[in-house]
Amino acid sequence: MNTNEQLIRHLIASGVLYSPSLIYAFKVCDRIHFIPEELYPKGYDDHPLPIGESQTISQPTTVAFMLELLNPTAGNKVLDIGSGSGWTTALLAAAIGRDGYVEGVERVASLIEHAHENLEKVHIHNGSISLANPSVLGKPGEHYDRILVSASATEMPTELFDQLKPGGILVVPVQNTIWRITKKENGSLESTEFPGFVFVPLITSV
Description:
Blueprint: H1 4-13, H2 20-28, E1 49-52, E2 55-57, H3 60-70, E3 77-81, H4 87-96, E4 101-106, H5 109-121, E5 127-131, E6 144-149, E7 164-174, E8 177-183, E9 189-195
Parallel strand pairs: 3-4, 3-6, 4-5, 6-7
Antiparallel strand pairs: 1-2, 7-8, 8-9
Helix pairs in contact: 2-4
């Protein structure tokens, strides 16, 4: 695939991308703006690519699959854990529109400056990325409509459940399985698992 349009057609044909708001997000947040320049020839390949510091930008199929599970909705407050080069933050921000906001957190400080530059390239102004607190996961005390985790935890990060609003959704890889956790209005949790994925590990302490 040589263009973003071809990549999007591939994702739609594969059945992993179908929501109009997310199709729009993939159109305006071209992956090429979130990878190192030397990798531009591979920018639309459906594979993960290195972005430095032993981190990767995930395979587009996996990103689309996870975002569809997350079901970002206009006006949502979203937490994006493991923002990397900023692609998922940008996609989420585009999908939820100007009335929503995405707070990205990233533990690799050297990636954050580039991520901010990348958000500017695609004109995202309702999202930001900050350095993650190394002693906690997410933002304890804050509450979100949606939480996306883009790196694999060794066990379910239950501390994120308290950061979900009632009606909220958490999508998180645990080892090689993607989990979708929904918090019902009464506070109970409903979970669905989707096995067979590979991610970089989630750093939970330094």
